[in-house]
């Protein structure tokens, strides 16, 4: 076999090898393929339209009360007077206040919780604590936790700036009542009880004092 024919066979073999190699890497394509579009061939892009929604519902309010309720309208007016007011943050603070005030009342130690009570509520707490002391009654209580904190109602007086938020609590605690001699007259040690309370907190919106005061208690 002469040299030119041998060279052609070698080159053909190399070409076949390269084609098979490319197919194994890139795969095969079947059917008609559109040629790549140039800028002039490409269809004109459609303008994108964006809807800007303004004045939508305030989820910090509607997450806690009905959007069309009087409570929602009162909360909106509070926020207009004090834009930094946040309902969710308030409820988080109310949860902590509930534990602190409840346990202060159970133990009879009212000094630390007095700044968070209205004069009327503080006076009623003092009356109950004094009555327990006169009877020689002692309460041993331990707070377990809060199962529910929910906004029950809200009112706002635009004339005075006074806001009132009523909160529903469901708490759990252990409580044992002992007499003067230390005998248990109510409760079982370690038994967890569920307690439900409805408390109302008040504050003048826009004031420098950030503290809310407990102004009413109930069930």
Description:
By secondary structure, the chain is of the alpha+beta class. It has a single domain, classed as Roll (Nuclear Transport Factor 2, Chain: A). It contains 5 helices and 5 strands; from the N terminus they run αααααβββββ. The chain has helices spanning 3-26, 59-62, 70-81, 87-107, 119-135; strands at 138-157, 162-178, 184-186, 192-204, 213-218. 13% of the residues are buried.
Mean pLDDT: 82
Treating each run of at least 4 consecutive H or I residues as one helix, how many helices? 5
Quote the beta fraction.
25-35%
Alpha-beta content class: alpha+beta
Distance between the termini: 110 Å
| CATH fold-level name | Nuclear Transport Factor 2, Chain: A
Please identify the top-level CATH class: Alpha Beta
Q: Secondary-structure element order, as H and E? A: HHHHHEEEEE
* Whole-number total of structural domains: 1
Low-confidence stretches: 8-12, 14-43, 45-54
Number of β-strand runs: 5
Largest sheet: 5 strands, antiparallel
The whole-angstrom Rg is: 37 Å
Percent helix among the residues?
25-40%
The CATH architecture name reads Roll
Shape: elongated
């Amino acid at each position: 076999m002469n040299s030119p024919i041998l060279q052609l066979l070698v080159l053909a073999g190399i070409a076949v090898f390269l084609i098979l190699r490319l197919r194994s890497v890139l795969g095969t394509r079947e059917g008609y393929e559109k040629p790549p579009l140039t800028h002039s061939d490409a269809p004109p892009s459609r303008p994108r339209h964006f809807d800007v929604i303004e004045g939508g519902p305030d989820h910090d309010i509607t997450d806690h009360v009905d959007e069309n309720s009087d409570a929602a309208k009162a909360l909106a007016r509070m926020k207009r007077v004090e834009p930094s007011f946040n309902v969710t943050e308030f409820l988080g603070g109310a949860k902590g206040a509930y534990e602190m005030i409840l346990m202060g009342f159970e133990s009879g130690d009212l000094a630390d919780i007095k700044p968070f009570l209205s004069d009327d509520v503080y006076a009623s707490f003092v009356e109950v604590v004094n009555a327990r002391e006169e009877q020689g009654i002692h309460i041993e209580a331990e707070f377990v936790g809060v199962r529910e904190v929910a906004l029950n109602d809200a009112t706002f007086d635009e004339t005075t700036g006074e806001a009132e938020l009523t909160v529903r609590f469901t708490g759990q605690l252990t409580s044992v009542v002992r007499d003067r001699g230390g005998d248990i007259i109510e409760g079982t040690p370690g038994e967890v009880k569920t307690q439900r309370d409805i408390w109302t907190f008040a504050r003048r919106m826009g004031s420098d004092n950030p503290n809310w005061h407990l102004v009413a208690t109930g069930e």
